[in-house]
Amino acid sequence: MISASGQRPRAALPLRARIVQWTRGPTFARDIVLVLAIKLVLLLALKYAFFNHPQAEDMRMAPAAVAQAILSVPMPPTAAPPASPSQQGTQRGNPQGERHAHD
């Protein structure tokens, strides 16, 4: 039967035939899939080779302690006591009393 567009409907190929056709033809999608698969294998190999175990057995920490160290906000350094009013006025053009290289 011919459809309204004037083309015959394509018969659905069996899965095996579609896989064979995909592997034989030079398609861009196939190349992308192969490159991504190779990258995945290499990344997993690197992970298992270098990041799977700590370098020393005594370097283990509880996951809660690691999370606290990573996610906690460090305390700001303690502020120095403010300068006396007589010291602030001695510097020209600088009401805060800070020294600069050009003073």
State the distance separating the first and last CA atoms: 94 Å
Q: Strand-and-helix sequence, N→C?
A: HHHH
Mean pLDDT: 76
How is the biggest beta sheet arranged? Answer: none
Beta-strand portion reads under 5%
Derived structural class: mainly alpha
- The level of helicity is 40-55%
Question: Judging from the principal axes of the Cα atoms, what is the shape?
Answer: elongated
What count of helical segments does DSSP give?
4
Low-confidence stretches: none
Total strands: the figure is 0
Radius of gyration: 34 Å
Brief overview, please?
With 103 residues, this protein is mainly α. It is 46% helix and 0% strand. The chain crosses the membrane at residues 32-51.
Can you describe what's shown?
Keywords: Membrane, Transmembrane, Transmembrane helix. The radius of gyration is 34 Å and the shape is elongated. The protein has helices at about 15-25, 30-50, 65-70, 85-90. With about 100 residues, it is mostly helical. The N and C termini lie far apart (about 95 Å). The chain has a domain at about 25-55.
Describe the protein's topology.
Elements (H helix, E strand, L loop, with lengths): L14 H10 L3 H24 L11 H9 L13 H4 L15
Features:
103 residues; mainly alpha; 4 helices; transmembrane helix; CydP; membrane
